[in-house]
Amino acid sequence: MLAVSLDPQIPGHCPEHVAAFEETLKTERRLLDELVAVLGAQRLGVSRNDLSALDDSVFAAQRILRTLAEARRRHRTLLAVLVGRDDLSLQEVEEAMGPHMPLGTRRALYALNDAAHRLAGELEQNRRILEGAMTAGETLLRALTGGTRASATYASGSAPSGPGRSALVDRQA
Question: How far apart are CA 145 and CA 42, in angstroms?
Answer without folding.
Answer: 29
